[in-house]
Amino acid sequence: MFRSGHEVVEWINSQLKFGMRPGLERMEAALLRLSNPHEQIKTIHIAGTNGKGSTVTYLSSILQSAGYQVGTFTSPYIEYFNERICINNEMISDDDLAWCANVIKPIVEDINKTEMGPFTEFEIITLLSFVYFKNHEVDVVIYEVGLGGRLDATNVIKPLVCGITNIGHDHQAILGDTLESIALEKLGIVKSGVPLFSSVEEPKLLDLFKSYCADLGSSFVPALELYPVSNVQMTTELMTFDWPDLTGIELSMKGQHQIKNATLAYSIINFLKEKRIFNVSDVCLYRGIKEAYWKGRFEVLNDYPPVIIDGAHNQEGMKELCETVQSLYPHHQKHFVVSILGDKDCDEMFGMIREVADKVYFTTFDFHRAQSAESLFLSYGDNSAAYHENFEVVLEHLLSEIEDNDCLIITGSLYFISSVRKFLIN
Question: Per-residue DSSP letters for 305-367?
Answer without folding.
Answer: TTEEEE---SHHHHHHHHHHHHHH-TTSEEEEEE--BTTS-HHHHHHHHHHH-SEEEE---S-
